[in-house]
Amino acid sequence: MATKTATTTTRTKTTKKAAPKKAVPKKATRKSANAVRPKSAAKVKTAKPMPKKQAKPAKAKRISLLDAAATVLKSAKKPMTAKAIVEQVTAKGLWTSGKGKTPHATLYAAMIREIAKKEKDARFKKVERGLFAAA
Prior knowledge:
mainly alpha; 4 helices; 2 strands
């Protein structure tokens, strides 16, 4: 019995050597208008005096709603709701509302936060549900 043997051939990759690159001549660079123009005709920049800045009048520092509420509550004889405080503050002109639709809710939350954070040193105290007085 004759046995056949399988022969395997492996191919090797042949690599080509890179040909040396030819030297490419440099392109002529474009010259600006000042470089082409003779030096006698070159434009000369003159320094312009800087305008003096005039002092702006100092803006009155805008008081916060919380500070204005503390002022209103000090002068009030009885506890007030957040909505009533906001109405008093805007009526006295201590604070003007921005774009918010519910400044009384923002004030209520801010007063609650201050009471919780500062405890005895807070400017407000909560008398009843929704009513605040000056501490």
